[in-house]
């Protein structure tokens, strides 16, 4: 299926809570475009009950080549599970990545626990 302007590219994410073995529902995510030292806010979303966003983070004409950063607000989501004193071990997790083909599907999943995380380019 082609999106706006014949561009089938899109950016998606999925967050899994590996400590509970379930999708991370209600986790806030911020998307930024990065140009040198400048970050431009593009979108704020929260994950649904499947740990996904209800629509692509980027698609159509908004899907452009360049450098982007997803900021996953893990501290808010994890609450007391990751706290020692007043500070969570993990708070905001930034993942910076590049898009070099605006017609491709870029999927950036996050596997999250209170004391660690991992990511990869998914499909």
Could you please describe the fold and organization of this structure?
The chain is mainly beta. 4% of the residues lie in helices and 50% in strands. It has one helix and eleven strands, in the order ββββββαβββββ. The strands form three sheets. Strands 1, 2, 5, 10 and 11 form a five-stranded mixed sheet that branches. It has a four-stranded antiparallel sheet with strand order 4-3-6-9. Strand 1 and strand 2 form a beta hairpin. The radius of gyration is 15 Å and the shape is globular. The N terminus is likely disordered. This is 5-hydroxyisourate hydrolase. Catalyzes the hydrolysis of 5-hydroxyisourate (HIU) to 2-oxo-4-hydroxy-4-carboxy-5-ureidoimidazoline (OHCU). Its EC number is 3.5.2.17. Keywords: Hydrolase, Plasmid, Purine metabolism. InterPro entries: Hydroxyisourate_hydrolase (IPR014306), Thyroxine_BS (IPR023418), Transthyretin/HIU_hydrolase (IPR000895), Transthyretin/HIU_hydrolase_d (IPR023416), Transthyretin/HIU_hydrolase_sf (IPR036817), Transthyretin_CS (IPR023419).
């Amino acid at each position: 299926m082609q999106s706006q302007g014949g561009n089938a590219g899109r950016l998606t994410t999925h967050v899994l809570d590996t400590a509970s073995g379930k999708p991370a529902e209600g986790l806030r995510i911020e998307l930024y475009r990065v140009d040198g030292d400048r970050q431009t806010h593009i979108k704020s979303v929260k994950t649904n009950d499947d740990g996904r966003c209800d629509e692509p983070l980027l698609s159509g004409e908004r899907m452009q080549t360049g450098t982007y950063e997803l900021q996953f607000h893990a501290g808010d989501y994890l609450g007391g599970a990751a706290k020692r004193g007043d500070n969570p071990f993990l708070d905001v997790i930034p993942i910076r990545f590049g898009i070099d083909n605006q017609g491709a599907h870029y999927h950036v999943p996050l596997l999250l626990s209170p004391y660690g995380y991992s990511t990869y380019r998914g499909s």
